[in-house]
Amino acid sequence: MTGIEEFTSQYGLVRKIDAFGYLDYLKSNPDAPRKHGKVVLVTADTPLKASRGEGKTTTTIALIDALNARGIDAAAVLRQPSMGITAAGSKGGASGGGKASLTHPELIDWGLCGEMAAIAAAQNLLVSFAEKAVDEGRLDTILVPRVSEVPSRSLRQIAVDRGKNDVPERVVLTPTCELMQIVVLSRSMDEIGRRVAAMIAGTKDGKPVAFGEFIDLWRITNMLADAVKPALTETLNGSPVYVHGGPFANVSLGIPTLVAVEMACALHDVVVVEAGYGADAGAQKWLDIACREYGAQWPSAAVVVTRASTWRDDPSLSWRYPFHVQRLENYDIPTFPLINLWEGEDDQVDSLRATAAELDFREPIVGNLFRDGGEALAPQLDGFVAALGQSSSAAQFHSRKGMELVENVKWIAKSAYGVPEDRVLLKDGFTESLVAARELCREAGIAIDDLAVVAVKSPATMTDDDTRPEDERTVTLKKVEVHAGAGVVHVNLTTSLTTPMPKIV
Amino acid sequence: MTGIEEFTSQYGLVRKIDAFGYLDYLKSNPDAPRKHGKVVLVTADTPLKASRGEGKTTTTIALIDALNARGIDAAAVLRQPSMGITAAGSKGGASGGGKASLTHPELIDWGLCGEMAAIAAAQNLLVSFAEKAVDEGRLDTILVPRVSEVPSRSLRQIAVDRGKNDVPERVVLTPTCELMQIVVLSRSMDEIGRRVAAMIAGTKDGKPVAFGEFIDLWRITNMLADAVKPALTETLNGSPVYVHGGPFANVSLGIPTLVAVEMACALHDVVVVEAGYGADAGAQKWLDIACREYGAQWPSAAVVVTRASTWRDDPSLSWRYPFHVQRLENYDIPTFPLINLWEGEDDQVDSLRATAAELDFREPIVGNLFRDGGEALAPQLDGFVAALGQSSSAAQFHSRKGMELVENVKWIAKSAYGVPEDRVLLKDGFTESLVAARELCREAGIAIDDLAVVAVKSPATMTDDDTRPEDERTVTLKKVEVHAGAGVVHVNLTTSLTTPMPKIV
Q1: In the prediction, which pLDDT does A177 show?
Q2: Contacts B202 to A, Cβ<8 Å
Q3: Is residue A424 pLDDT above 60, yes or no?
Q4: Which of A130-144, A351-365, B103-117 shows the lowest mean pLDDT across its residues?
Q5: Cα distance between residue A230 and residue A226, in whole Å
Q6: Superfamily classification of domain A115-223
Q7: Do the chains contact at B117 and A118, CB–CB below 8 Å?
Q8: Residue B183, H or E segment
Q9: Residues of A with Cβ-Cβ distance to B155 under 8 angstroms
Q10: Using CB atoms, which residue from B132, B222, B504 is nearest to A129?
Q11: Under a CB-based contact definition with an 8 Å cutoff, are residues A207 and A496 in contact?
Q12: A13, B204, B302, B348 - which has most CB atoms within 10 Å?
């Protein structure tokens, strides 16, 4: 593909691509050769616990290997895993496994080219500048949190300037911060600058003050110069894999950067996008935030990964997997169940297929992807490839912009979690939190109902108690937090951790 | 030079070199072609304030450009500046300026390849593991501080787990932490692992507990995989410049990594090493710590940089510059005064030369290096090149290992600051701090008197009050802190900031 080499540099064992530059080049050269790849969304069943993956990355890698083996030019776009969590041992890496692996998983798992660290440093510098603004009398309350790349539960609530002013603060994991969201959603460094300028640093006499009022934006954008470039690596079989953007779809976006996906679509025919945690988390965010509100491409097909044990071993939770598959089909996205077998589960294939048939699923794709990689998938992809060929990526969807915030959350609860609006409850304090957030936005000249809603929740639950019968399930809203720069508003469900900062386990 | 290419990878606009691997290769291949370059130390007058550089990096760059222009194969080894301080605007970058610049100063100043950030993440992970050890009852008090790449004075004293346990902690700047010292001083990843294992995590019932007793060392060394590789960039004139190791010679080591210097010596005939702040800081640390205790190469020549204004505009401080020059000459290091002129100072050359002659200096090198770069130096280097050719790098020096700690500090005060031992005073509390440190070491099975002393002080002063007459100058010792993993013991002078964490200015 002409052009892309000029925007590509070697970085050790991976390459980094100036995606902003390449997409600009395509815009100013409409006749330049390019592809118009279709997006395939890889999502999963809701996991039984946060630390237990279903195998989305393994599936994504096996899938592109299998497609390339069939002569289809396919690439994957992954999010960068959190080094802190990996290093701490709280969670494995996120670079596949066994035959469905990357050539250099250690690079992806252990900090890549410093992207996350640069975002952390820039977000922390914003807090330092906010402190300076307090000293100068421009601010009296800081609203942006500091971040850390490594988990430490004791950082959830801290006091700084101990012994003098004892200012209460909180620290969040880097991938969940507003600056990471800005990097994920922005299509140029100028857009990043504008969004950073619009971030609400804090308040002065109750009125919001944006960073644009007192910082030099170049200090932040300089820090991000390399972090905005997607990394390119490959699978053991040589299929291209782009890595860019942060994890944790339960408490933030948890999707790859939009530019990484758009660049991949210009370079390949099929682009497999992995979104974080279950379909209620990353897939919901890809569809309802990235596609509806930020112009990302609607998927032409979806693969929903589960493990035999996740799907069937807890009967009270077995409703979740068919719910996810059906939900995506209802959007006219051809949706393929994929059951990722573990050692010793080969004898379950027939029974799994029978269950899938009872549920009116498409023919499921079943295999031990760790053991067999893409070879396990290749013979099962006829239906998938056919569906992909027929589907149109110009699917029908519309923005929820302007929908009143609670109505918007109720719509999410209904469409993504299966809970009707009369069972969306408001916890004590939620209304006050919403009124305060609405007022903050009004003072900042933003319509809160125009912000995209980020549901902040546990990765392992969709409702207050997923084990209850369907007609008793509820969703309770706890609080609201505005990320004006990213253009999103967080709504915390009661299942969420207020501050995503796990303990080392 | 055969061999080095195999250890070199492109990282965007710079290259990274597996120095550990290359030095191992040379060790196992004694007949492989290599050079035995001589080290030239570039140091400076004590600056008037921390944020005001004399021009060491500018000089270093101009010097190697001038030597290469004369056909001498010369390279520089610089420390990586602190992105946090640069981004915050507290201090300029450290990549030269004007004609004496690097091709891509922005890379050096803005995070390089994430080395500092990886060290920060690893040091913070150590604290997280120490917290886990507290939960498990292995520790009751944590001694290692968290670190931050960006300055924020409010972090000097913090409380974590606010509202529950309110545990007091402190945060220090990344370049000053023990893990950075370990990276600077170690010659293999195994050595880093051993040194991390020997770091004292904290105490249990008053007894020291080392990290080796409870962490997986691979988690830390994996995080550092890229950070241990020096970066290679070049000057505008194409002279090679290696960048590796952290700044801040006043409160830590502030010298480049030993492996970067050793690798450069195997590849070039002259290796110009820049050490931080004044000769009382970085040069003292290079000579008395790196050379005496860690086997680094004794300099074959030194250049002491000053500005006309630093040297002469405050008569009460004008003793410092000749003191530094004379001190290095006393070690038989041919020492060249270099006066880095600023705009509008060209007419001072004759008077500066006259003053230098009165002081019995070698013929000083004088020029506006920002404006003229190496061209300003080249015609003045005959004496320097001749001295370098005559000097032997096998100079006489000896370890201070085993010297009682206070005696050792008194020796530093006398040799590096000009204060005799009867004017080295102990502040209230110093003795208790020393007794506690000595006991901690004893319990850990370490002889405190075998550790290398790191004087922790203000960058802009050598004594309690440099403006007083020589026979009234004192040095007061405040406290002692052991970095058992790095093999050093910090002794804070009263002029030091307890925690190096500046405010944004």
Answers
A1: 95
A2: none
A3: yes
A4: B103-117
A5: 9
A6: Domain 2, N(10)-formyltetrahydrofolate synthetase (3.30.1510.10)
A7: yes
A8: helix B178-185
A9: 160
A10: B504
A11: no
A12: B302
